[in-house]
Amino acid sequence: MTNLDASTMVLVLALGNLALCAVLTFFEHGPVRAPALAAWGLSKQVQAGAWTLLALGSAGVVPEPLALPGGYALLFAGVAIEAGASWEQAGREGWRRPTLLAGGLAILVFFVCYLIDEQGLRSLAASLLLGALYLNGAAALASGWRQASLLQRFLAILTAVLALVVAARGLSVLLLPGGWRWLSSELPRQLSSAALYVLMLANGFGVLLLARERATRELARLEVVDPLTDVPNRRGLFAALGPWMALARRPGLPTALVVLDLDQFKRVNDGYGHPAGDAVLRHVVELCKRQLRDSDMLGRLVGVEFAILLPRTKLEEAVLVAERIRAAIASSPVKSERAMIAMTASFGVTVIRPEDSTVTLFQRADDALRAAKEAGRNRVSQAAAAELEA
């Protein structure tokens, strides 16, 4: 009866991994696919092959000397690939190669134990090695704990606990008196099989849920962030501007707004191509960030027009900030494949007034920017000066 139960569990694990393999194969299938997701699909294919081979060995279809070492070798490889995919998804590509090397070392150790031909030693090695590889995957899920979602934290804790349950048979031999008796006991074996089954479900469907969660979070981010320059777009900037508009109605230091526009940018796209134009925009954003404080905000309004929000900054101070940025842009040409591209920018500066709306605020800043353009470009104009000229 025990052998039948073990064979049934192995068959269930084989069929479950085959089903997950199919789901991951068709999930977000297309010409462009995330490398981590592709690696997860590969890991499930390898694990499905491993459990299928072990199931055929238990049924006597495949000889045990072939099914047992071959099945466990594939299983170690599949779990190692899965852990490597978790590290890659966490942005730690440097950990992927050591994880795969650990999987290869686990295969080598198991083969040595198998050649010694002691049933207890093989089971001990399989328990400890599988538990260690699953713990590596749990560590990958737990990386970046502070920024991780609740789902990712739950999966990390669950994987770690289940990995310890898988390794419990081997740990009992090393830590408990009479440990070899526990290794052959039915209870640890059933707990280990149940843990492997839950790990299959948690890691399989957890991957799908995490992928969907990250996609949703990325879509929400792109609603307020410009994908080219990675700064807030018009919607994100206006959302951040709201509280400062309200604070302007209270006594205290003013908040300044700087609007800048690159001069004659069309010649860059026409003469050097759009990739060069994109490089110029990213370069200008980096130059601006170097001149700003952590509390300042740079955003892209539209095209080559940017806005800078300077909290607790007077008009004269904002003009100095704009002047520093103008000088930095004018003195830092962008290196492209065909030439060095020199750029200049014009600036309009104003402060938020208590009676302002976003319309009147940006109208005043745009009027100052227009005055800078009409005065010859590559200069900074204050809103008050623009109004006096008008």
Automatic annotation (TrEMBL):
SMART domains: GGDEF (SM00267)
Domain GGDEF residues, every copy: 253-385
Gene3D superfamilies named among the record's database cross-references: 3.30.70.270
SUPFAM superfamilies: Nucleotide cyclase
Bilayer-crossing regions: 66-87, 99-117, 123-142, 154-174, 194-211
Database matches in CDD domains: GGDEF
Enzyme class at the top of the EC tree: transferase
GO molecular function: diguanylate cyclase activity
Keywords on record: Membrane, Transmembrane, Transmembrane helix
Origin: domain of life: Bacteria
Coiled-coil stretches noted in the UniProt entry, renumbered to this chain: none
Record-linked PROSITE patterns: GGDEF
Catalytic activity: 2 GTP = 3',3'-c-di-GMP + 2 diphosphate
EC number(s) reported in the record: 2.7.7.65
UniProt xrefs under Pfam families: GGDEF
Protein name per the record: diguanylate cyclase
Annotated organism of origin: Massilia yuzhufengensis
